[in-house]
């Protein structure tokens, strides 16, 4: 898009500006923003009354514009996860969301030209005998022209840019002409431009022959000559290796030659560093950068003790000073020309500089609520009536009072209307597979029987878990010592900043190890989330006490991966790490086993081979098990025997649902790492028709940056044909094939070779779904992605993007096939995956159920299917609390008022958000939460109408009532009656004082279930009742 148009159509809004909300809605649509009920991702906007939410493509977070009439009253940045405002700003710039704006007048002007070009392209294909391709292009042209006529966006519509804009711009047109450019290695830049231009021309020729495009495609890109010419118009600096011949691209006005060299590593041998600094002192300015203030102080003190002039102020950069400061360079260097020597922590101590985590814009740990994702037609579970189908929210007027109801459909078309104050009894049905569950009949006893059966099974399991837990508490194990100096040094050498979840997990593991009771902790977290580092620190701690660690993994390749990671982290310490696997010769294995028995191996890593009879430990103290569910029954039995006496840390990458985690508190020690690693780029995801040229270009592009590619084809019958196709398209690629029907040894060897970069492309089935962490694989092509489930696509896509490189995922479907709507939605959902998107939540839930089944066993997996996951967790938690003798919270309170207390459609029209707010209001547990929900409603939807205010007040009265032991508050005639559970509450001096405080306005009736009646003939009856209940609380507390 031309830069002047980009600037012209960027909206700049300030508080106090006047806008027409209808015009703005239309403008945002033209600019490429999509209207949604709730804004969660880039390029979205929503309008609710006088509030506009917009996620501009140039901002980290979305903004909320609140109007007073037509005037902008405020602009607030809000969190897309919580939907709550964070800060107020004065203005916002909203640029176009896409590269092309679909202006109706420009489209109308050019439709005839586009149609003519399509017709010519079809004729050209027919002339050269490409009848099939011509037919295909004809179909594509009618689709494209229809979409353009309707001004609709569609995949690939950017190719029409040359028709709608007279001059297309490059990035240089967006940059001020006085900008200084810095070019690193101009010869390589020139080569890359030439190679890119060649790729474009080659791709265009192929696509033209296939009938995928028309001639205008190449006009989207500058030619090599245009690009280099525009680049040469700028001023700046070029960096090249000395004596490099060739074009500098920018016309040099002066040339400078600098010489730099690296510095030697000292690995903590500070006396050698002192010697070197003595040589440099006086001739060089010296800077030492370290990653913490503590180290700055420690190293500074050491240098001063050795008569070196160490200072900590960076402005003291003089020849006779050595500046020791906290900072970050990747490695040290000596700059001879300006006599500057820089040493980093890498050379001084032997550590990499800690990489700071980027602040995530995603708030972690917010539980995924199931109800606010309800769509009509979804299955739900009502605790008392069983599985039904949610049909929507309906407002009913009964006895002159409006109230909202969830409408649930059961067998035989029966309907149940659930008042929103009972919303806590309804949960979205989350089962164990994609098959729809059976609808129950209202009034039948079948649901009660099923629920009771699950309840009994859950209780049995809870008893077993508690017995195991209690049994373990009685076993006397080994209490590890507190952290040593080496342990602290070793942990300081971790090259990344730990995530909060990771730190919690590390502390929990160490605390367990220092306790004499044997540890049995489960650590959950996705691949690459930092579980291995927790395990390494535990193993290091064990080694510090002279204890051995066994790391048990399900596959040989995983053993190799762990061996590499452990060895690399621990190499600077006198700790011996070994691996036993089938990749070791028999003699090598025998040698390792001898050393293990003598205590000469501190950490051994291996597959189930470690469970063999000939494996004898000298003093095993810690067992680390990775993905225990992937071991066989016999291996698990052997593990049980070992587990009873040593500390055990089990790692799993399958997510465990938070609700299950909470239910198991006190019977299963669990740590969860939910915070994603830093510096991970989002995976760029494309949905495309299958196209050989696309496959060729994608593989070549990844190989061009020395990376590897997964090509997923989930049909073993013709997987070899697909591999042959890849070899034909990219002859230079080293291609391997992997699928589950291969011999296990052969498959392992092949995967091992791929891991070691002996192949460029792995054509495989979905066996890589639970695969390795291979940072060098950063492109995945998924063929026939439309046939796969959302969770499966999520996991497959997650195999890439595990390094600091940008990763790509291509989801392909057959070119001659119209996608079913369900498949299209599924692919769109994965394309838009973020930690906030509903697609992510659905996929995560699918995976979590799998995780729950792994953790609890097959029988419980069946029970989850029969009653739904949410109710299952509730029953499990209840069973555990009952067995532990923990008191149940005070029961529910019935609330029946005459006032309208509901959310009108003209305030919140979206039923999902409406249910979300009802659920939050129903769930309030403190005065602070009531204030918080008021603030949230005001913030997100504007000033609430009276029925919403009543709803919040009544919820607050329910909260006060529960605390006072009231089981029902009912408005009848001119009284609001509060019915108490027992007689003690309304006896004694407190009641006398209460009646005296409000003479003639309240009545008290004693008995087994006493009643407090509050007259409604007052100005604000709800506020008055609140005042009476608050006074009663004060009087009861003071007695």
TrEMBL record:
Subcellular location, record wording: Cytoplasm
Alphabetical UniProt keywords: ATP-binding, Coiled coil, Cytoplasm, DNA damage, DNA repair, DNA-binding, Helicase, Hydrolase, Nucleotide-binding
Top EC class, one word: hydrolase
A GO MF term: hydrolase activity
Residue ranges of coiled coil: 108-135
EC number: 3.6.1.-
Keyword Transmembrane on entry: no
Start and end residues of each Helicase ATP-binding domain: 512-673
Primary localization class, coarse: cytoplasm
Entry-linked PROSITE patterns: HELICASE_ATP_BIND_1, HELICASE_CTER
Domain Helicase C-terminal: 682-848
Any Gene Ontology biological process: DNA repair
HAMAP family in the record: TRCF
PANTHER family for the chain: ATP-DEPENDENT DNA HELICASE HOMOLOG RECG, CHLOROPLASTIC (PTHR47964:SF1)
NCBIfam families linked to this entry: mfd (TIGR00580)
Protein name: Transcription-repair coupling factor
Organism: uncultured organism
């Amino acid at each position: 898009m031309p830069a002047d148009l980009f600037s012209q159509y960027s909206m700049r809004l300030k508080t106090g500006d006047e806008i027409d909300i209808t015009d703005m809605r239309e403008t945002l649509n033209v600019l490429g923003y999509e209207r949604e009920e709730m804004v969660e991702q880039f390029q979205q906007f929503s309008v609710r009354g006088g509030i506009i939410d917009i996620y501009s493509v140039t901002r980290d977070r979305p903004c909320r514009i609140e109007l007073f009439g037509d005037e902008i009253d405020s602009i607030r940045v809000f969190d897309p996860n919580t939907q709550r405002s964070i800060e107020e700003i004065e203005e916002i710039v909203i640029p176009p969301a896409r590269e092309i704006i679909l202006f109706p007048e420009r489209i109308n002007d050019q439709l005839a030209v586009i149609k003519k070009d399509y017709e010519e392209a079809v004729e050209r294909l027919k002339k050269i005998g490409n009848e099939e391709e011509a037919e295909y292009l004809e179909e594509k042209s009618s689709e494209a022209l229809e979409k353009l006529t309707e001004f609709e966006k569609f995949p690939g519509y950017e190719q029409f840019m040359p028709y709608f804009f007279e001059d297309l711009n490059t990035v240089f047109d967006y940059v001020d002409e006085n900008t200084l450019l810095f070019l690193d290695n101009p010869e390589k830049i020139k080569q890359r431009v030439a190679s890119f231009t060649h790729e474009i021309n080659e791709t265009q020729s192929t696509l033209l022959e296939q009938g995928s495009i028309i001639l205008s495609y190449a006009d989207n890109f500058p030619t090599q000559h245009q690009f280099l010419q525009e680049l040469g118009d700028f001023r700046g600096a070029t960096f090249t290796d000395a004596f490099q011949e060739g074009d500098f691209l920018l016309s040099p006005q002066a040339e400078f030659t600098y010489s730099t060299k690296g510095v030697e590593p000292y690995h903590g041998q500070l006396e050698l560093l002192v010697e070197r600094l003595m040589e440099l002192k006086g001739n060089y300015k010296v800077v030492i950068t370290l990653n913490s203030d503590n180290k700055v102080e420690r190293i500074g003190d050491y240098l001063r003790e050795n008569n070196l002039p160490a200072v900590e102020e960076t402005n003291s950069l003089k020849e006779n000073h050595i500046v020791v400061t906290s900072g970050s360079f990747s490695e040290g260097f000596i700059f001879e020309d300006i006599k500057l020597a820089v040493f980093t922590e890498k050379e001084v101590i032997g550590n990499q500089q800690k990489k700071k985590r980027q602040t995530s814009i995603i708030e972690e740990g917010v539980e995924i609520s199931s109800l606010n994702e309800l769509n009509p037609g979804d299955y739900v579970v009502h605790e008392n009536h069983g599985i039904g189908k949610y049909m929507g929210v309906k407002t009913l007027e009964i006895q002159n009072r409006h109230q909202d109801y969830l409408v649930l459909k059961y067998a035989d078309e029966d309907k149940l209307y659930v008042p929103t104050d009972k919303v806590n009894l309804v949960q979205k049905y989350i089962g164990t597979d994609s098959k729809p569950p059976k609808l129950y009949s209202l009034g039948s006893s079948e649901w009660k029987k099923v629920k009771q059966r699950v309840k009994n099974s859950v209780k049995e399991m809870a008893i077993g878990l508690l017995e195991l837990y209690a049994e373990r508490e009685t076993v006397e194990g080994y209490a590890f010592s507190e952290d040593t100096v080496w342990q602290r040094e070793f942990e300081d050498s971790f090259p990344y900043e730990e995530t909060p979840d990771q730190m919690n997990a590390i502390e929990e593991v160490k605390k367990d190890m220092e306790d004499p009771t044997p540890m049995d902790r489960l650590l959950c977290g996705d691949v690459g989330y930092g579980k291995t580092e927790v395990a390494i620190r535990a193993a290091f701690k064990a080694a510090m006490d002279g204890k051995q660690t066994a790391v048990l993994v399900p596959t040989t390749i995983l053993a190799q991966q762990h061996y590499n990671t452990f060895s690399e982290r621990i190499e600077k310490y006198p700790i011996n790490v070994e691996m036993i696997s089938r990749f070791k010769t028999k003699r090598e294995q025998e040698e390792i086993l001898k050393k293990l028995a003598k205590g000469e191996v501190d950490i051994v890593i291996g597959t189930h081979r470690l469970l063999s009879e000939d494996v004898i430990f000298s003093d095993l103290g810690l067992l680390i098990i990775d993905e225990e569910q992937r071991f066989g029954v016999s291996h698990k039995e052997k593990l049980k025997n070992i587990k009873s006496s040593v500390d055990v840390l089990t790692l799993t990458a399958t997510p465990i649902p938070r609700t299950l985690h909470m239910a198991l508190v006190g019977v299963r020690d669990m740590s969860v790492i939910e915070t994603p690693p830093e510096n991970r780029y989002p995976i760029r995801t494309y949905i495309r028709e299958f196209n050989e040229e696309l496959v060729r270009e994608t593989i070549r592009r990844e190989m061009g940056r020395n990376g590897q590619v997964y090509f997923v084809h989930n049909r073993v019958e013709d997987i070899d044909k697909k591999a042959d196709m890849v070899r034909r398209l990219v002859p230079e690629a080293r291609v391997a094939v992997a699928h589950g029907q291969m011999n296990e040894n052969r498959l392992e060897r092949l995967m091992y070779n791929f891991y070691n970069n002996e192949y460029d492309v792995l054509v495989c089935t979905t066996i890589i779904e639970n695969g390795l962490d291979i940072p060098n694989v950063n492109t995945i092509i998924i063929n026939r992605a439309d046939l796969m489930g959302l969770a499966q696509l999520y996991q497959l896509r997650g195999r890439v993007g595990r390094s600091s490189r940008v990763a790509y995922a291509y989801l392909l479907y057959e070119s001659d096939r119209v996608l079913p709507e369900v498949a299209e939605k599924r692919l769109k959902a994965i394309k838009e995956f973020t930690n906030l998107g509903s697609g992510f939540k659905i996929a995560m839930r699918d995976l979590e159920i799998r995780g729950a089944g792994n953790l609890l066993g097959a029988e419980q997996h069946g029970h989850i299917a029969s009653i739904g996951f949410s109710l299952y967790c509730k029953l499990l938690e209840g069973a555990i609390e009952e067995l532990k003798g923990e008191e149940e919270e005070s029961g529910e309170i019935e609330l029946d008022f005459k006032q309208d207390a509901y959310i009108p459609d003209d305030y919140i029209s979206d039923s999902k958000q409406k249910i979300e707010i009802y659920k939050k209001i129903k769930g309030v547990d403190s005065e602070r939460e009531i204030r918080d929900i008021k603030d949230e409603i005001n913030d997100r939807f504007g000033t609430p109408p009276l029925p919403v205010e009543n709803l919040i007040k009544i919820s607050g009265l329910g909260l006060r009532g529960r605390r006072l032991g009231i089981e029902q508050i009912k408005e009848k005639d001119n009284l609001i009656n509060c019915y108490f559970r027992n007689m003690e509450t309304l006896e004694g001096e407190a009641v006398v004082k209460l009646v005296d405080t409000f003479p003639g306005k309240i009545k008290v009736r004693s008995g087994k279930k006493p009643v407090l009646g509050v007259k409604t003939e007052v100005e604000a009856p709800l506020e008055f009742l609140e005042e009476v209940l608050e006074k009663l609380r004060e009087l009861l507390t003071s007695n």
